[in-house]
Amino acid sequence: MGKIKVLFWFDVEDFINPESEEALLGLMDLFDQRGIVGIFKLVGEKIRVLERNGREDILVKLRRHEIGYHTDWHSIPPVVTVYLEPLGFREGAEEFTRREEGGIGDLARITGQPVRCYGQPGQAWAPQTFPALNRWGVSAYLDGHDQVTMEGRPFWYGGLLNLDSLTGLMSLPLKDGALPEAMQEFDRLCELQKDEAVGFISIFYHPTEFVFAEFWDAVNFSNGRNPSPEDWVKPPFRPEGHMRMYLDRVGEFIDYTLSKPNVSYASTDEIVRMERSVSRVLSGDEVKSFALRTGNELIYLTEGPMCLSASELFWVFRQYALGLEPVPEIVYGPERDYPGDPAREVRVRDVFESLREPMPEVCGFKQLPDYFQVADVKMDPVTMTCTLAAIIREGLTEEDRIFPLNGTLAATKHAMNEGDWAEYWPIFPEGLQVPNIVAMSRLQTWTIKPALF
User: Fold this and answer.
1) What burial letters (b/e) apply to 413-422, b meaning 16+ CB within 10 Å?
2) Residue 294 and residue 301: Cα distance in Å, rounded?
3) CA–CA separation, 393 vs 81, rounded Å?
4) How confident is the model at residue 1 (pLDDT cuts 50, 70, 90)?
5) Are the beta carbons of 148 and 182 closer than 8 angstroms?
6) Residue 423 has what pLDDT?
């Protein structure tokens, strides 16, 4: 059996109830006593409350663990998905930056640590978050969400290593009799991944749930409600002594996992460093090899330790065609799915000229245009990439002509095509639908590719 890496993470979000801070302290003690690293994703307002309340005991302990970001205000409307649904990809990334850069800045300032990962509040996922997170140096997306997935394995999407909705996603329910079942589930997930070089088990909690019988936000912000702070209420407490009892059970569970010879705990930073994809300048032969394998169904391609997403394929083909260094680079998908003009023969020279035009940018990163203007023909990015591959493999020159090769973005198979999310999370407004979020999530599969371990 290969190695099993456990990612044990906590969404530290309840900034209303100071009682939840004792559970946070207790959880960090469990990890510190065992010498393992936990991943604590904090809400901006929560870290500010800890600072205002003088909880230096908690802040000191946090420095021994990995810090992640969990948005600035979590469930206070409008939540991320809601405020980004009406916006385009570039505009949405800018809006996410405007709303969230203060929170992630406070988190880094107060903890004195780099912010390594991000996870959405509840189910409030959106593709426009990725360019902003990438610009802030966040390298991993850690959560549970199935809008974009890759068969339960880690994958690259939007420039981040995605560790969400893994095969090994689990939790130990805080109820009687749950410990033996959780141990069995852990063993089952290990066995399920026995043939992987590295398997992953992702375990999560919220400190607040050790103290309260209901979630802090469900009793205040369900269905998009937004009461004023003086009307916020506390959830019902768990019975006296239950917090300590459940903390001890989590400790027993951790001890059980550590008894396995191939199991160790890891931060997302360690997992990113373990990932072995190679990014370097490609040789001419390597570019031609990728071009030979690029047909009319555009998706990531793997060759040895190198895996290129659809947008990276476009980029290395472009660079090679223009006589520039073909090194893979993050290029985000376009704003919209533009069909392009009916295909008709074009000059290779005009194809190259269209590639020399400045590309759009999002948060300082390149973005595919909706279409390339090739003389009097509008060519969509998929057709352009497939046509470039044909130019390279056929050895055409600027003096030649070519009939554009229409294709499809087959990578969209990794994104769901549904828009009704109202039932996903009780905090969402009733009847919420997000067709724009869904459409953009599919367009950004230009950036998807498997992680290699």
Assistant:
1) ebbeeeeebe
2) 8
3) 42
4) low
5) no
6) 80
Element counts in the chain: helices (H) and strands (E): 15, 22
State the first-to-last Cα distance of the chain, in angstroms, to the nearest integer.
Answer: 14
Tokens in use for 405?
């090769």
Angstrom distances, CA of residue 36 to CA of 32, 265, 304: 6, 6, 33
Residue whose pair of structure tokens reads 């880094």 in the numeric block? 108
The model's pLDDT over 405-425, given as tens digits with 9 standing for 90+, comes to 999 999 999 999 986 677 889
Instruction: Give the span between the Cα atoms of 250 and 209, in whole angstroms.
Output: 13
Is residue 265 pLDDT above 90, yes or no?
A: yes
User: Which residues, in sequence order, are CB contacts of 178 under 8 Å at separation 6+?
Assistant: 172, 249
Gyration radius (Cα) of the chain, Å = 24
Domains of the chain: 3-275 (3.20.20.370), 284-414 (no CATH)
Q: Give CA–CA dist 234/19, Å, rounded.
A: 10
Q: What Cα–Cα distance (Å) separates residue 27 from each residue in 41, 42, 108, 236?
A: 13, 14, 21, 21
Confidence of residue 368 (pLDDT cuts 50, 70, 90): very high
CA–CA separation, 300 vs 447, rounded Å?
8
Strand pairing report for 263-265 and 169-170: unpaired
Give the list of residues 6+ apart from residue 369 with CB closer than 8 angstroms, or none: 334, 359, 360, 381
Strands 39-42 and 66-69: parallel
pTM for the model: 0.96
